[in-house]
Write a structure and sequence with these properties.
alpha+beta; two-stranded antiparallel ribbon; Nuia; five-stranded antiparallel beta sheet; 4 helices
Length: 134
């Protein structure tokens, strides 16, 4: 699958979903081309996103990041169950299309969040959103 097809799948899977923290933010699809095939590191993420070198970066596993969003609860109504199913589909889409998936949380209280993996062509693709945690 090429980068365009992967981005289309990610866009379709994330369309209309909001990441919930102490606020709600949509997801944006992203692609970072790497002609030099240098692996993604926290420093590279800061450079790629225009954050200063002193910005705190926390790397989190994809399953940990989406844990609450993909877990159904007995008290969920139909709408919540549908949202959980959509998040499960989103995580599955990420895992099926990208390798070396990692979540990078940049900042402290107001965080820029990047869910990034490697495409078959060696570029980085994924989703960006925001989180607020006090």
């Amino acid at each position: 699958m090429n980068n365009t097809e992967i981005l289309d799948q990610l866009k379709q899977a994330s369309d209309g979903l909001l990441f919930q923290s102490e606020s709600e933010y949509p997801f944006e699809v992203l692609l970072w081309e790497h002609p030099d095939n240098i692996p993604l590191t926290p420093t590279k993420v800061l450079e790629q996103t225009g954050h200063s070198a002193g910005t705190p970066v926390k790397a989190v596993a994809v399953d940990d990041f989406f844990k609450v969003a993909v877990t159904g609860e007995d008290w969920h109504g139909e709408e919540e169950r549908q949202t959980v199913n959509r998040f499960q589909t989103l995580v599955q889409t990420l895992k099926e299309n990208l390798s070396d998936l990692q979540v990078y949380r940049l900042g402290e209280t107001e965080q820029d969040v990047y869910v990034i993996g490697q495409t078959p062509s060696g570029d980085s693709a994924g989703l960006a959103t925001k989180a607020v945690e006090t």
